[in-house]
C-alpha cells in the first residue's frame, strides 16, 4: 500500500517530488502511526462489508475502523460481531486466492475487553487482516483491561496487534479532573508503549457533555471548551522528546449540501490558477471548506491524521497531509549533519529564518510525514492534489 497509490504512476510522477513510501501492515510502528491518514469508520453491521473495504481501498483509503460501539444499536452487537467474522473470513479467502487487492489497515472498535480476545479466537486465520483495536472512552482504570486484552490476543494469535485508545471521557473534559486523568492515561499507554499506535480524540463526546455541536461553519478549535482539551492532550501526550504519541484529529461530522451562514473560507486564486473553479464550488457547496480549515488547524496544533465518517473526507485529509516542497527543503537543510551544532540559516526559499536547534523536532516530523504522504513538486499545491484525486 501507499498513499495516492490509486492514482496512475504517470499522475504521481507529475505531482510528487518524492512519492509516498510503500508500506504493509507489518511495517515499523513509527511509519504506521504516520500513514494512518484519514481513518474511515464503518459500522460492522454492513451486509457487504468485505466489498466495502475493497471499494474504499481502491479509492485511496489506507486505514479503516470497523465499529462495534457507538455507530450501532446496543441490540445489534451480536449480529455485528457475527457479520464481522463472516466478512473478514470471506475477505481472507479472496485475498489468499489472489482475487482481492491489498486490504487497508483494519481496526475493530470494541465495547468491552472480552470482545477483543473473543473476536480474535472466532476469526481464526482471518485475524491476519487485523492491525488492532480501537479502545473507547479510555482512562487509566478503564483502559488497562483493554490493553491487557490486546496483549493477550496477540500472544494467542501470533499476530502483531496495535491499540488506538480514544480519549473522550468526561473526566478528561472537566477541568478539575483533567490533569489527573491525563497523568493516568499516560501511565497506562506508557506501560504498553509498543502496543499503542496512536491516540484518537473523541470530540463529539466532549461536545455532548455540554450539549454542544459545532456547525459546518465552525471548527473544533472554535469551541473553546474543546480546544482547551486538545491543547492539554498534545501538551501532555504528544511531546517530541521521546515520551509522546501520535495524536489524531477529531471527526468532521458533515457531508452533503448545507445552508451557509458565513462566507466561504476558501480563497479563489489557488483554484483559478489551476483551472479548478468548479472544484472550489463543489467543496463549498458540501461545507468542505470548513473541513479543510480544520485539517490545517489539526496540523498546526500537532495532530496527524483524522477520524472520518464519510468517504468524501478522505482525499482532503490526504491532500493536505502531503509535504510541500518548501517545507521539505527547509527540513532537509535544518537536519544536514554540518548544521548539527546549531545556528541560523536563511531558507532556500529566501522567505524565512530556519533556526537549527529550535526547529529540529519540527523538521524530523516533516520528514516522517514526507515518508508517509510524499513531497509535492515545487509547482504543485493542495488544489492540484485535490483535483487529481476527485472524480469528474
Tell me briefly what this model is:
The chain has 392 residues and is an alpha/beta fold. It has helices spanning 9-15, 29-35, 49-58, 77-96, 113-123, 140-157, 170-173, 175-191, 203-208, 224-237, 269-273, 277-285, 288-300, 314-321, 325-334, 356-373, 382-389, and strands at residues 16-18, 38-43, 63-67, 105-109, 130-135, 162-167, 199-201, 247-252, 306-308, 344-346, 353-355, 375-376. It is globular.
Q: What can you see in these coordinates?
A:
There is one protein chain. The chain has an eight-stranded parallel beta barrel with strand order 2-3-4-5-6-7-8-9, surrounded by five helices. The protein has two domains: 1-18 and 323-392, no CATH class; 21-321, TIM Barrel (Alpha-Beta Barrel). The longest helix has 20 residues, at 77-96. The chain starts with 8 loop residues before the first helix and ends with a helix. Helices cover 47% and strands 13% of the residues. The chain is α/β, with parallel strands linked by helices. α6 runs parallel beside α8 (175-191), α8 runs parallel beside α10 (224-237) and α15 (325-334) crosses α16 (356-373). It has 17 helices and twelve strands.
What are the salient characteristics of this protein?
eight-stranded parallel barrel; 392 residues; 2 domains; TIM Barrel; alpha/beta; 47% helix; 17 helices; two-stranded antiparallel ribbon; globular
Amino acid at each position: 500500500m501507499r498513499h495516492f497509490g490509486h492514482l496512475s504512476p504517470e499522475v504521481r510522477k507529475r505531482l510528487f517530488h518524492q512519492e509516498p513510501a510503500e508500506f504493509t501492515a507489518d511495517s515499523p510502528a513509527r511509519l504506521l502511526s504516520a500513514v494512518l491518514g484519514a481513518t474511515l469508520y464503518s459500522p460492522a453491521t454492513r451486509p457487504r462489508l468485505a466489498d466495502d473495504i475493497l471499494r474504499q481501498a481502491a479509492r485511496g483509503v489506507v486505514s479503516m475502523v470497523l465499529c462495534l460501539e457507538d455507530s450501532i444499536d446496543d441490540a445489534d452487537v451480536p449480529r455485528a460481531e457475527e457479520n464481522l467474522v463472516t466478512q473478514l473470513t470471506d475477505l481472507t479467502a479472496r485475498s489468499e486466492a489472489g482475487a482481492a487487492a491489498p486490504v487497508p489497515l483494519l481496526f475493530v472498535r470494541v465495547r468491552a475487553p472480552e470482545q477483543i480476545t473473543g473476536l480474535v479466537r472466532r476469526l481464526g486465520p482471518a485475524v491476519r487482516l487485523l492491525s488492532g483495536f480501537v479502545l473507547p472512552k479510555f482512562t487509566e482504570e478503564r483502559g488497562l483491561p483493554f490493553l491487557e486484552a490486546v496483549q493477550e490476543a496477540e500472544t494467542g494469535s501470533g499476530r502483531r496487534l496495535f491499540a488506538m485508545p480514544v480519549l473522550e471521557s468526561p473526566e478528561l473534559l472537566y477541568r478539575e479532573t483533567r490533569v489527573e486523568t491525563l497523568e493516568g492515561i499516560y501511565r497506562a499507554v506508557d506501560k504498553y508503549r509498543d502496543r499503542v499506535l496512536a491516540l484518537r480524540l473523541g470530540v463529539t463526546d466532549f461536545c455532548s457533555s455540554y450539549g454542544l455541536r459545532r456547525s459546518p461553519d465552525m471548527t473544533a478549535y472554535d469551541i473553546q471548551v474543546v480546544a482547551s482539551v486538545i491543547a492539554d492532550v498534545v501538551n501532555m501526550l504528544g511531546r517530541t522528546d521521546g515520551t509522546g504519541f501520535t495524536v489524531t484529529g477529531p471527526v468532521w461530522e458533515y457531508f452533503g449540501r448545507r445552508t451557509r451562514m458565513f462566507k466561504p473560507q476558501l480563497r479563489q486564486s489557488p483554484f483559478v490558477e489551476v483551472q479548478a473553479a468548479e472544484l472550489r464550488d463543489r467543496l463549498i457547496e458540501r461545507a468542505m471548506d470548513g473541513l479543510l480549515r480544520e485539517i490545517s488547524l489539526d496540523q498546526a496544533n500537532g495532530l496527524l491524521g483524522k477520524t472520518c465518517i464519510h468517504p468524501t473526507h478522505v482525499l482532503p485529509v490526504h491532500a493536505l497531509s502531503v509535504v510541500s516542497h518548501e517545507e521539505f527543503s527547509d527540513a532537509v537543510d535544518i537536519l544536514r549533519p554540518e548544521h548539527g551544532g546549531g545556528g541560523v540559516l536563511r531558507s532556500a526559499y529566501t522567505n524565512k529564518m530556519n533556526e537549527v536547534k529550535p526547529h529540529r523536532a519540527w523538521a524530523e516530523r516533516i520528514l516522517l510525514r514526507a515518508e508517509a504522504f510524499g513531497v509535492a513538486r515545487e509547482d504543485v499545491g493542495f488544489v492540484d492534489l485535490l483535483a487529481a484525486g476527485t472524480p469528474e
